[in-house]
Amino acid sequence: MLVGIDGSAGSERAFKVGLMIARQREWPLRLIGTFIRPVVTDDYYVRQLDQYRSEAASSVQDLLDSYSARAVEAGVEVTTRTAEGDAGATLVDESSDARIAVVGKRGRNRFAGRFLGSVSAKLTAHAHCPTLVVPERWESGSETELLAQHQDRPDAEAAHEEPVTLMEESGAREHSRRSFANVTDALNFDSEIVVGVDVGDRAADVVHLAAEAAELVDSPLTLVSAAPLNAQGHWYPNTVEHNLELPNLRRRYTDHLEALTQEVAAKSAGVPVRWQFFDGSPAGVLSEASRTAALLVIGTRGHGGFAGLLLGSVSQAVLNRAVSPVLVIPTHKPHRLRRH
């Protein structure tokens, strides 16, 4: 279990989540702190560089020691490392030996701290293991209304609310959920783990890892796919030809969702699992789902509704706008969250 520590509120959240998982799974905790070597040219500052590096390293190690003491007190095995250099690159290197990496994310919504941040962005894009990004959850103490606002269109943040329509689903939810005045029933994933599903070859890997996470925390799992079915991007009427083709477009996704749902039900019998297919952009649907979901799970690559998820605007929109924690899974190698 790898956690990046820099003393910020984000790293505090990441540490708490990492510590909770490490205790639950009886995994060792690895805490990493970094400092940047300044670029100096003046002779005076060159002579002071060694003193700076020593003091910076000592300061970072003191911070790591304070977190380490909390882990030891919680009964978790812990190691630390103070490194000189780029924090994102260091965490990427360390991730090659980790089961999962945890980092915090700046900002409370799509306007405050809009960008993901260089460290979390680099880690989610290049980590060798799954990465859990923990944002500052923006909600009220109310049981009936979330403060998290509806998601806007990814290409126009101040534009109209992005249209999202539930087209098909496998069946009604069997578990109880809170009801929120500003969340539609179709997009209310209270207490659920939501996994974004594409139609690529590696979608099953992401879904089964999401099922493991659901089993670990005893939560229901919902598979979600989305595609903008309107030929003109929702804003103009479809052509007759496009309307005739819509059932085939939908079936591509719903057949895939149904097959994956049956696989999960057979492999993880203890996990309640269902699926939903939406008419809307993948980024908009997943971002909206994150307002209520306990966890959002996405893969790093795809070939359908979530194609190129970490390679462009879709990934940035999801990770920047998500209210819930997001588990990002690289699909180039197998991963397991289980203890054995």
Automatic annotation (TrEMBL):
Residue ranges of the TM segments: none
Provide the coiled-coil residue spans: none
What is the superkingdom listed in this entry's lineage? Answer: Bacteria
Q: Which residues form the UspA domain?
A: 1-135, 193-330
The record, for InterPro entries, names: Rossmann-like_a/b/a_fold (IPR014729), Universal_stress_UspA (IPR006015), UspA (IPR006016)
Q: Which SUPFAM superfamilies match?
A: Adenine nucleotide alpha hydrolases-like
Q: Which Pfam families match?
A: Usp (PF00582)
- Family per record: Belongs to the universal stress protein A family.
- Could you tell me which PANTHER family the record lists for this protein? STRESS RESPONSE PROTEIN NHAX (PTHR46268), UNIVERSAL STRESS PROTEIN UP12 (PTHR46268:SF6)
State what protein this is by name. Nucleotide-binding universal stress UspA family protein
Q: Which organism is it from?
A: Nesterenkonia aurantiaca
